[in-house]
Structures are given as structure tokens and as C-alpha cells.
Amino acid sequence: MRTHRTMTPRTRRGAAVAATAALGLALTACGSDDGGNGGEGGSGEGDAEETTGEAGGEGGGTITLGYIPSWTDGLSTAYLLENKLEAAGYTVEHQEISEAGLLYTGLAQGDVDIYPSAWPEVTHASYMDQYGDQIEDLGTYYDEAKLTFAVPEYTEIESIADLTENTDMFGGRIYGIEPGAGLTEVTKESVIPTYGLDEAGYTLVESSTTAMLTELEQATQAEEDIVVTLWRPFWANSEYPVKDLADPEGALGESEGLHFLGTQGFSEEFPEVAEWIGEIQLSDEEYGGLEQSVAVDNQDDPAAGVEAWLEENPDIVPDLEG
To answer: Any idea which fold 9-144+256-312 has?
Structure first.
């Protein structure tokens, strides 16, 4: 965990590091002086120097990006922001966090400056209810995010409602992701009771995104039936032969926007950055290309993935003037 920077008025909400540690906030800090590789392939060695918002690169300061690295929307946008911010003279640090609740805690307490791909409208609504008055919404970069249940293309069902009569086909298991994920909460509190999946004999296997994808890969390679919790946009939808199940009861919620969230006071401390972030907009095709380049084509070097995408799409994200 990086050394927490000297408290400014916006971070003086108690001893943020101590409070975060007490909650078990699992952070891996990666300074990016070498171009950055703080995603799944990052080394995470060493603590960053203690800084204030006024310290750092030319005309900039230090900005900390917090995200869950296996959720590749946040991984991709974190390295996109890093590329542009460092070019403008800011110092960027990465904090990899294990759970959504812990990420919102760190953001609210000022231990994280920006969560670069949040789902605050539906999926993370409960976290916004808890921490929203300590968080700034910096803008929506993508408008059509959606939670899903998915099965392989060859599986002969088309709706979540069909699961109840086919428990044996799936061994009574729904493979999910992290216990603290909004998708996990929606699955347990809405989807399972709405469709009577618990009564039909299903169990939600809570683990991690990586573990869920491992199960999905193994099942599709063996052409076995499996049901998993997924979301769009996410590279796995095109990487694996899967299809979304219809949700006739709307238990997974409506589509929502993906937002950049900042800690309270961020726009006062970094007004130029806040204004610039609010201008970023990505279409389906643009976002899909970014995530493909970062999470699939260059999964061991996310920074290189961003550079490759920017070379092909030089005009989509404007430069931030330093």
C-alpha cells in the first residue's frame, strides 16, 4: 500500500489509511514512472513517496486511480487516463483493490482520487447510497452497460426463466464473481428470488472474475453446459462462445452508464482534469477496441495496449493541456 499523501482539506475525514486498513482494504500500489504496468501484470514493488496534490510532475500533481484489475473496464480506462495525464505532466499512481465496497470506501475517504469505471446508477447504487455525499460524479463515458446471465451458444435454453426446469443441466450451479460485486448482490437479492432459482436447487458460486472465467473457458472447451454472471461491455462476450439469457422479469435491472467518479473535492483541487474527464465519450465500437487492446491483445502490458489503441484512434480522446 502506498504511503498516504499529506492530508488536504478534502481528505481530512479521519485517518484514512488507518480506517481503510481496519476494513482490510487490499491495495497494491504501482507508481508509473516507467510507463506503468499496474494491471494484472504489474509488479507492485515499492511504496510511492509521500506527496500532496501540489507535488508531482510539471504543472500537475499526483493522482491515484483505484480499480479492480480483473474488471477490465476499469483497468482499461485507468491506463487510458494514465497515458493522457502523464503526457500533461501529472504523476499517476495505481491502487489495485479486491472488492467494490472497499474501492468505494477508499474513494470516499480520499485514499483514491478517481475510480475510472464505476456503475453507480444501478449496479453500485447501494454503495452510492452509503458514500455518495463523499464522491463526485466527473462524467459518463459510456451509456449502455448491462448486467447479464450467460450460457454457451450451444446450450439449448434462451431465458433465465428456463433455468428452473433445467437444474440438472447445470449441476445446480451459477458461477459468479466477487462477493462484494454489485452483480453478485443483484443476483442474490433480485434474480434468484424473482425466478425461484433457490427453490429450484441452484447455488451461486461466489469467487472471483478470474475464477469464473476459468470455469467458463473449461466448460466451453469441453462443450459442457454452464451458466455464469456476466456484463456488457466486457471482452469475454466476444472471446468465448456465449449468449445472453433473456431476463423477462427485468431482475438484472436496466442498462446504465459507466462513470468516472472522484473523491469529494477533486474538481476543486484538479479543475482542469475534472473538466477534461467530463468530455470523454466512447461508443460501443471505440470502447470494445480499447478493452480488446488492453485486456486481450496486450494483457501483460496494459500501457502498451492503450498506446496501440491511441495510435489507431488518435482523435477520440482529446489531450489534456499541461
So the answer is: D-Maltodextrin-Binding Protein; domain 2 (3.40.190)
Q: In whole angstroms, how far apart are CA 171 and each of 86, 178, 201, 228? A: 49, 21, 9, 12
Tell me the pLDDT tens digit for each residue of 4-55. 333 333 332 333 333 333 333 333 333 333 333 222 223 223 333 333 334 3
- The grid coordinates of residue 44 equal 507492485
pLDDT of residue 60: 78
Residue 318, C-beta contacts closer than 8 angstroms, at least 6 positions apart:
276, 279
**Range 146-244 has CATH code 3.30.310.50:** no
> What does the domain layout of the chain look like in residue ranges?
9-144+256-312, 146-244
Average pLDDT, the chain: 84
The answer, yes or no, to whether residue 149 has pLDDT greater than 90, is yes
What pLDDT shows up at residue 8? 35
Residues 6+ apart with CB under 8 A from 177: 183, 184, 206, 207, 208, 209, 212, 229
Binned at pLDDT 50, 70 and 90, residue 238 comes out as: confident
The Cα diameter of the chain in Å comes to: 62
Please give the helix or strand (H or E) that residue 182 lies within, else none: helix 182-186
39 grid coordinates = 494491471
Asked, colleague to colleague, whether 9-144+256-312 and 146-244 share their fold, the answer is yes
Of 56, 67, 79, give the one whose Cα is nearest residue 29. 67
Other CB atoms within a 10 A radius of the CB of residue 284 amount to 12
What pLDDT score was predicted for residue 59? 54
Cell numbers found for residue 315 = 482523435
User: Do residues 182 and 119 lie in contact, with contact meaning Cβ atoms separated by under 8 Å?
Assistant: yes
Give the three-class secondary structure for 252: coil
CA distances from 161 to 202, 228, 281, 306 (A): 13, 15, 35, 40
Residue labelled with grid coordinates 500501457: 303
